[in-house]
Design goal:
Layout: E1 3-4, E2 7-8, E3 17-24, E4 30-36, E5 51-52, H1 53-68, E6 75-88, E7 97-108, H2 139-153, H3 155-158, H4 164-189, E8 191-192, E9 214-215, H5 239-253, H6 260-287, H7 303-317, H8 323-327, H9 339-352, H10 357-368, H11 371-383, H12 392-403, H13 409-424
Antiparallel strand pairs: 1-2, 3-4, 4-7, 5-7, 6-7, 8-9
Helix pairs in contact: 4-5, 4-6, 5-6, 7-13, 9-13
Length: 425
Amino acid sequence: MRLHIGTFAGQLGDGAAMYLGEIVNLKNEHWELQLKGAGLTPYSRDADGRKVLRSSLREFLCSEAMHSLGIPTTRAATCIVSDEKIARDQFYDGNPKMENCAVVSRLAQSFIRFGSFEIFKPRNVDSGSWAVGPSVGRHDILAQLADYVIKSLFPAIDSMEITQLEKYKLFYKEVVISTAKLTAKWQAVGFVHGVLNTDNMSILGLTLDYGPFGFMDRFDPDHIPNTSDTNGRYRFREQPVVCAWNLRKLAEALRPLVSLDETTDILSEHYFPAHQSEFMAIMMRKLGLLKSLESDQENLLSDQEVLSEFLQTLLKVGGDYTNSFRALSKLSLPGMETFDEDFEKTRDELIKQSSTHDEMNDYFLNYRISSMVQMKLMQLKFSGQAEAEMDDKTKQIVSRLQYHQYISVSVGFIFAIRFILCLLF
């Protein structure tokens, strides 16, 4: 039972997961075990409960890669291919092809999601959806679920000698903070989930359900790996905002247990500060900066200003989001014998990680012909809207359409390097 693309959809998914049970390892850790793609389940609806090798390998490889990157995630244990084939329309263009089936076994300390708490959701006509949860009005079950989650997954809270109401509030606070830190880690490595509905949000702050995800190569705040996300709801730069919105929906689901005013205060107080703190800490390490500056000191830029300038440079030159940061490791400290030589090597590597003029032209051409941009330009043309009257999103679109003519590869990156050199002195 979950919210998808901002609207409560009742039941989502293809019902391809089978819960096998719980195991306890040698460290006394509890892990839930599932099979994904093993066949029909009671929740498969019109689907067949199967997964193809292509998508199964993506989940297996990416979940283990995310774990190695230190990003909380479900884990993949095995991926087994079958001789059986099923038809899948990979590009949704009306040309399905037969593909091999596969089954992934995956583990997590819990697969409970935000959407698990929405099975009690009542009808909300104002939202445009007539769907309701199958257990609507069963506040007793809602309390049982919340109590189980706290006792099983948040034992530190459960052991506190406080009222149950206070436990619910602390539980929500923990979910808020873990989600904020998770999205910060995504943003730091350029991971875009693709479908951040409430059913794909883990109560433990884990990366969950690898569908149309992607990693950014060229830095692009508007990167969208999911071809069906035509409005860009789940684009790279929107992920922290969408996750905050999902936390708001979790708060609404918990309203019979905790007032919405109290959970809203918790969300407002903790989410974005926790996200920003985690994100900046990671990005400063990626820049190789150990000393933190909150504001201008000794004519040096603050942490936020240095990062903002560097990211703006990446955007202008089409720099690779991962390799451009990695290239900075070639730079030695000023005063060392190899500094001048290393500076040249660093600059050359940064230029190498930039897009060519043709690549940038192709990129902005694709951007210009997108349906979203064309509709916006038509609105501007017929309304005669002046720039001063444009909202921020419209200004960004117009700016990007104009800016592609003024790309300078080397100068921008050298400018970014000089900011970093100033901080190293």
